[in-house]
Write a structure and sequence with these properties.
The complex is a heterodimer of chains A (about 575) and B (about 400).
Chain A lengths: L1 H24 L8 H4 L1 E8 L5 H17 L6 E5 L2 E7 L4 H8 L5 E6 L24 E4 L19 H16 L6 H7 L1 H5 L12 H17 L5 H11 L11 E4 L5 E10 L9 E4 L5 E6 L5 H12 L21 E5 L2 E4 L2 E2 L7 E8 L1 H14 L5 E9 L1 H30 L3 H26 L5 H30 L4 H33 L3 H33 L7 E2 L2 E2 L4
Parallel strand pairs in A: 5-12
Antiparallel strand pairs in A: 1-3, 1-14, 2-3, 4-7, 4-10, 5-13, 6-7, 8-9, 9-13, 10-11, 15-16
Helix pairs in contact in A: 1-13, 1-16, 3-11, 5-8, 6-9, 12-13, 12-14, 13-16, 14-15, 14-16, 15-16
Chain B lengths: L10 H6 L11 H21 L3 E2 L1 H4 L1 E7 L6 H10 L8 E6 L4 E7 L4 H15 L7 E5 L1 H29 L2 H25 L2 E2 L1 H31 L7 H37 L3 H34 L12 H21 L1 H9 L4 H9 L3 H4 L13
Parallel strand pairs in B: 1-6
Antiparallel strand pairs in B: 2-4, 2-5, 3-4
The chains are: A alpha+beta (about 575), B alpha+beta (about 400).
C-alpha cells in the first residue's frame, strides 16, 4: 500500500516533469491566440448549403491561397458549417485579407482582339501588350508536346536550355505572360525573334512564352507610367478598321498586372470535374496541368474550344505561329476577374480531359491547378467576421492576464498557507504539478489541433485556479471534521479522500460535460474557452487522484505532521 | 488529543471549528426574497434599458485606434464624415486606462473596400501605422448565428447535466441546481443591463463560466446533503434538518473556496484591467466576479432551501419541529462523520425510553443531539503496528 502510494506520487511528478521538459525541449508551446499576439482572424461562411466535404475543399483552397501569399502554415479549419482562418502574428494583414477573401468563381472566356474592348474602359492596372501564350491545350493530357502546332517542337532540348527556359518561363508567367502576340509582332518583331532561343523550348512550348515575355517586359518596364498606351495603340495599328463586335468584352488584368481583352464568359469552372486538376511532370522536366472534364460540362467546354480552334470571330487568332500561320485562339481562365492563364487551343474537341502545357515552374503549375480545382468547386464563401488586432494591444492583454494570474495565484497560496499551515505544502506542490500538466497539455493540444490559447482561454484558466483549489479545500475540510470527531490523522485521511473524491468527480464531470458540449457545438472564441476549461478540469482530476491522494496519505502515515499545526488544530499523535 | 470538544465562544471561532448552527432553512425566505427582488430588478431594467449588444451581435465594422492629443472622438467623427459614413448611427467612444487610450468606433456594415479606406484614414489621422489600428467586421447574420449556436449548446448542456444530476443524485436536486444557476445568470445579466456594459462574445464566455461554476458549487453542496441523507435514513430526520446540518458543515469549505476562487478574478479585475490597462479584461472580470459570488451565494441560499422545499412533502411527515440553536449545533458537530456512532452510542437510553412508551424516532433523535464528548465513549482502537 505504502509502496503503491510512493509509486503513484513519484510517477506522477516524473511524468509531468518529463512532459514539460519534452515540450520545452521541442519548443512546443501553446499557440497564442489572435487577441494575445495580434494578427488577423476571418470567419467565412458558405452562401448556400455546403456539405462537410465541400467545406474541406474550400478550406484547402483558402490555405493554399494564403501560403502563396507568403503566410507560413496558416491556421485554416472547418468549424461547424464555417471556415475559420486564424493568422496570429501575421505581418501583412491586408495582403492576407485579400488572399482569404476570394469569391472563387472561375470563368472561361475567349481572348479577343483589343479593339473589342475599346468601348470598355481599360482596367486600372497598367496594361501591356500581350504575348504569345506558350501554353497549349491538349486533349487527354497525354501528349503535351505535339500539341503545339507552331513547330517549335523541333530541336531537342538540352539541359542548359531547359534551365534557361524555366527561368524565363517563371518571369513570363509571373507577369502573366499570355497574350496576343499580335502587338508583339507588329511592334517589335526583332525582339521577339531574339528570344528565338525559342527553339530550345520548342517542346515545352515554353519557348514561345519565354521570348515573348522578354520582349514585352522590356517595353512595359521602360514605359511604366503609360502602360496603357501601347494597348491603345497597338490594337489600332493592327486592326484599325475593326469595330467592336462582341458585347461583353472587357479588359481583364492578368496575374502580372498586364491586361488582355476577354470576350463574355462562356462557361464556368464547373465544366471541370471536382478535384481532378493535377500537376504532371513531363519528359523534359517541364510541368503541365491536366484536368478532367465533367460529363455535363464537356459540351460547353468543347463549344468554346471549337470556336477558338477554328479561329471564329468570337475567339479569333491572337497571334501567329512561328511558321507564319494564324494561331488558334486562346481561352482565358479567369478567377475573380483576374486572368490566371490563357492557353492556346490546339485541339477542336476534347475528350474527357484537358492538358495545359507550358513553361510552368512547379509553383505556377500548382497555382493553376488550384485555380482549376477551385473553379470546379464554386462554393461561394463570404466573410462573416473579420478581426485584426495590433501586436501591441495583444501583447498588453497577454501581459496583463499573466501578471494578474500570477499575483492571484500567489495571493491564493498565501491565504491557504495561512489557513492550512503545513498541509498547504501539498496544495503548493499539487498546484505546481497541475500548472505544469496544464501547460504541457495546452502546448500539446494547440500543437496538434491548432487551437490557440486566447484571452478567453487564459481567463478560463484563471477561473480554474479556484475550482482546482476547491478540491483541496473540500478534502482538507473533510479531514478537519474527521479529526475533530476524534479520528487520528492517519485514520481520517483515507476516509476523507474517499468521500472527497466522489464529490470532486461529480462536480468536475459537470464541467467536463459542459466543455465537451460547448466545444462540439459552438463557434469562435467560445470553443477555445471550452477546450481550456476541459483541459484544466481533467488535469485537476488527474492531479487530485495521482498526486494529492498519495501525498496526503503518506504525510498522514508519517511522523511529519505530528505536533505540527494544521487546520487550526494541533494534530495528535496516532 | 484534540477533539474540539469545546464550543468556541466567538462566532468566528465557531465558524473556524465548524461549530456553526445557522438555521439556513428557517431563513430561506430572506434568500428567496432577495432572489425575487434581483429578478424583478433585472427584468425591469431589461425592459427599460435593454442590453447593449456589441458589434458581434448586431453586425458592422469597428475600429480601435490609439488616441492621442490630436486624435479624439471629434477627429474620428470627422474621418467618418470625410469617408461618407453617416455619423448618427455610429458609436464612438474613448476608452482609456492607465496605459491604454483607445478610440473605439463602430458603424454599420460597409463594403470591404470602404472599410480598408477608412482604416487607412484613421491611421493617418491618428498618426500611426495601419498595423496599430485594430479592425473588426462582423456580418449581421453572424452575430445571430453565434447566439443561436451558443443557445443550442446551452440547452443541450442543461438537458444532459439535468440527466446526470438526476442519475447521480435525484431529479429534485437537478431542478434546484438549475434554479440556482438561472438565478446567477439573472444576477449577471442584471449587472450588465443596470450598468449598461456592452455584451460581447467575451461576455458570453463569462456567462458560460458562471453557469459552470454555479453548477459546480451547487453539486459540491448537494453531495454533502446526499451523504447526510444516507446517514440519517435510519432515524427519519426531517429534510430541513439534513439541509441545515449539511449547510453548516460545508460552510467553511464554501467560504474558503469562494475566497480562493475570487482572489484570482479580483486580481484580473484590478491588476489586469486597472493597472495594466487591458480594457477588454475589465468588464469580463466584473461579470466573472459578480457571477462567482452569486454562484456561491445561490448554492447555499437558493439551491439548498429550494431543495428542502421540494423534499419537505416527500415521504413521511416529520414528527417534530426542526432543530435549532444548540441542538442543531450538536447535530452539526456530532454527525460530521459519526452519524452512525450517534445512534449506537445512545443505544442504552434507547432501550429504556422505548420501554417507557415514547416513540422510537425521538430516542434516535435524542441520540443525535448528544454532546460530542458522549458520542465517542472510548478512544479509537489503536492501530496495530503492522505494515499494511
Amino acid at each position: 500500500m505504502k509502496r503503491r502510494l510512493w509509486f503513484s506520487l513519484i510517477a506522477t511528478v516524473v511524468a509531468v516533469i518529463a512532459a514539460l521538459a519534452g515540450n520545452i525541449a521541442t519548443n512546443n508551446e501553446p499557440i497564442l491566440g489572435l487577441d494575445l499576439q495580434g494578427g488577423l482572424s476571418v470567419i467565412l461562411a458558405p452562401e448556400d448549403g455546403a456539405t462537410g466535404d465541400d467545406l474541406l475543399v474550400v478550406r484547402d483552397l483558402v490555405r493554399s491561397s494564403l501560403e502563396r501569399s507568403g503566410v507560413a502554415e496558416p491556421d485554416v479549419r472547418v468549424q461547424g458549417s464555417n471556415i475559420v482562418v486564424d493568422l496570429p502574428g501575421v505581418k501583412d494583414k491586408e495582403e492576407a485579407l485579400r488572399s482569404v477573401s476570394v469569391s472563387g468563381i472561375v470563368e472561361l472566356r475567349s481572348v479577343v482582339n483589343f479593339n473589342e474592348c475599346a468601348a470598355s474602359p481599360a482596367p486600372a492596372v497598367p496594361t501591356d501588350e500581350t504575348i504569345a501564350e506558350g501554353r497549349v491545350l491538349d486533349s487527354d493530357g497525354t501528349i503535351t508536346v505535339d500539341g503545339d502546332p507552331t513547330g517549335e517542337v523541333t530541336p531537342p532540348v538540352d539541359e542548359e536550355s531547359i534551365g534557361f527556359l524555366n527561368d524565363e518561363a517563371k518571369t513570363s508567367f509571373r507577369r502573366s505572360a499570355p497574350d496576343p502576340d499580335a502587338p508583339v509582332e507588329t511592334d517589335a518583331p526583332a525582339e521577339t525573334d531574339a528570344p528565338a532561343e525559342t527553339d530550345a523550348p520548342a517542346e515545352t512550348d515554353a519557348p514561345a512564352e519565354t521570348d515573348a515575355p522578354a520582349d514585352t517586359l522590356a517595353p512595359a518596364d521602360s514605359v511604366p507610367a503609360d502602360g496603357t498606351e501601347p494597348v491603345a495603340e497597338v490594337p489600332l495599328d493592327l486592326a484599325p478598321t475593326l469595330a467592336p463586335s462582341i458585347t461583353g468584352a472587357e479588359f481583364l488584368p492578368t496575374l502580372d498586372g498586364n491586361a488582355l481583352c476577354a470576350g463574355p464568359s462562356q462557361a464556368s469552372g464547373e465544366v471541370f470535374a471536382r478535384d481532378s486538376a493535377s500537376v504532371q511532370l513531363g519528359q523534359f522536366g517541364q510541368f503541365s496541368v491536366s484536368v478532367d472534364l465533367r460529363g455535363d460540362g464537356e459540351a460547353s467546354w468543347n463549344s468554346l474550344a471549337t470556336q477558338c480552334f477554328n479561329r471564329l470571330p468570337s475567339c479569333p487568332s491572337t497571334g501567329v505561329d512561328t511558321d507564319g500561320s494564324a494561331r488558334p485562339g486562346q481561352i482565358a481562365i479567369v478567377l475573380d476577374g483576374i486572368v490566371q492563364s490563357a492557353p492556346v487551343v490546339n485541339v477542336p474537341v476534347f475528350d474527357g480531359s484537358v492538358s495545359i502545357t507550358g513553361s510552368f515552374t512547379q509553383d505556377e503549375a500548382d497555382q493553376l491547378s488550384d485555380v482549376l480545382n477551385r473553379g470546379a468547386f464554386p462554393v461561394q464563401v463570404t466573410p462573416q467576421e473579420t478581426r485584426t488586432v495590433s501586436a501591441s494591444a495583444g501583447g498588453d492583454s497577454l501581459r496583463a492576464a499573466i501578471i494578474a494570474g500570477l499575483i492571484g495565484l500567489a495571493l491564493v497560496l498565501a491565504f491557504l498557507l495561512a489557513y492550512y499551515r503545513w498541509l498547504a505544502l501539498v496544495i503548493i506542490g499539487g498546484l505546481t504539478v497541475w500548472a505544469m500538466a496544464v501547460y504541457s497539455a495546452a502546448a500539446f493540444v494547440s500543437g496538434a489541433t491548432n487551437y490557440a490559447l486566447s484571452l478567453a482561454g487564459v481567463t478560463g484558466i484563471i477561473v480554474a485556479i479556484g475550482v482546482t483549489v476547491d478540491s483541496y479545500v473540500v478534502f482538507f475540510e473533510r479531514m478537519k471534521d474527521e479529526i475533530r470527531n476524534g479520528r487520528t490523522l492517519r485514520n481520517a485521511a483515507p476516509r476523507s479522500f474517499n468521500s472527497t473524491w466522489r464529490t470532486i468527480w461529480s462536480a468536475d464531470l459537470v464541467s467536463i460535460i459542459g466543455a465537451l458540449i460547448l466545444f462540439s457545438l459552438s463557434v469562435g472564441s467560445v470553443r477555445g474557452f471550452a477546450l481550456y476549461l476541459g483541459i484544466t478540469t481533467v488535469c485537476d482530476l488527474f492531479v487530485c487522484f495521482f498526486f494529492t491522494r498519495p501525498a496526503v496519505l503518506l504525510i498522514a502515515r508519517s511522523k511529519f505532521m505530528v505536533g505540527k499545526r494544521a487546520f487550526g488544530l494541533e494534530v495528535a499523535t496516532s | 488529543m484534540s477533539r474540539g470538544d469545546q464550543i468556541a465562544s466567538t462566532a468566528l471561532g465557531r465558524l473556524f471549528r465548524g461549530q456553526t448552527a445557522i438555521d439556513f432553512y428557517g431563513r430561506r425566505r430572506v434568500g428567496f426574497i432577495i432572489a425575487v427582488v434581483v429578478i424583478i430588478a433585472t427584468i425591469g431594467s431589461l425592459f427599460t434599458r435593454g442590453l447593449d449588444l456589441g458589434l458581434d451581435f448586431e453586425g458592422g465594422d469597428a475600429w480601435d485606434i490609439p488616441a492621442s492629443q490630436t486624435f479624439g472622438v471629434d477627429e474620428a467623427k470627422a474621418v467618418l464624415e470625410d469617408n461618407g459614413v453617416p455619423t448618427n448611427g455610429a458609436r464612438i467612444q474613448r476608452r482609456s486606462s492607465d496605459t491604454n487610450d483607445l478610440i473605439t468606433v463602430q458603424i454599420e456594415e460597409v463594403t470591404q473596400a470602404n472599410a480598408d479606406q477608412i482604416t487607412a484614414a484613421f491611421a493617418e489621422a491618428a498618426g500611426v501605422g495601419t498595423d496599430e489600428v485594430n479592425f473588426s467586421f462582423t456580418s449581421s447574420t453572424w452575430g445571430g448565428e453565434i447566439t443561436d449556436k451558443a443557445v443550442r449548446a446551452l440547452i443541450i448542456f442543461l438537458i444532459i447535466v439535468s440527466i446526470f444530476i438526476s442519475i447521480r443524485f435525484e431529479w429534485r436536486m437537478a431542478l434546484a441546481a438549475l434554479a440556482a444557476m438561472a438565478h446567477d445568470v439573472v444576477v449577471v445579466v442584471g449587472v450588465y443591463t443596470v450598468f449598461g456594459f456592452e455584451v460581447t462574445p467575451g461576455t458570453v464566455i463569462a456567462f458560460l463560466t458562471i453557469l459552470g461554476y454555479s453548477l459546480y458549487d451547487t453539486i459540491v453542496v448537494f453531495d454533502r446533503v446526499r451523504e447526510n441523507e444516507g446517514k440519517y435514513a435510519g432515524i427519519r430526520m426531517p429534510y430541513e434538518d439534513i439541509v441545515n446540518i449539511s449547510m453548516n458543515q460545508v460552510l467553511m469549505r464554501s467560504i474558503n473556496t469562494s475566497i480562493s476562487s475570487v482572489i484570482p478574478v479580483v486580481s484580473l479585475l484590478l491588476i489586469g484591467s486597472g493597472l495594466l490597462g487591458a480594457v477588454t479584461l475589465r468588464e469580463f472580470g466584473l461579470a466573472l466576479l459578480v457571477g462567482m459570488i452569486s454562484g456561491i451565494y445561490s448554492s447555499i441560499f437558493v439551491a439548498t432551501p429550494l431543495l428542502a422545499g421540494f423534499k419537505s412533502n416527500v415521504g413521511r411527515k416529520p414528527r417534530r419541529e426542526r432543530l435549532t440553536g444548540d441542538k442543531l449545533r450538536a447535530a452539526v458537530i456530532g454527525s460530521g462523520v459519526t452519524g452512525r456512532l450517534a445512534t449506537t452510542g445512545a443505544s442504552v437510553d434507547a432501550g429504556s425510553t422505548a420501554r417507557s412508551g415514547s416513540h422510537d424516532d425521538d430516542v434516535k433523535t435524542a441520540a443525535v443531539l448528544q454532546p460530542v464528548g458522549q458520542l465517542l465513549t472510548h478512544p479509537p482502537r489503536p492501530r496495530k503496528k503492522k505494515r499494511r
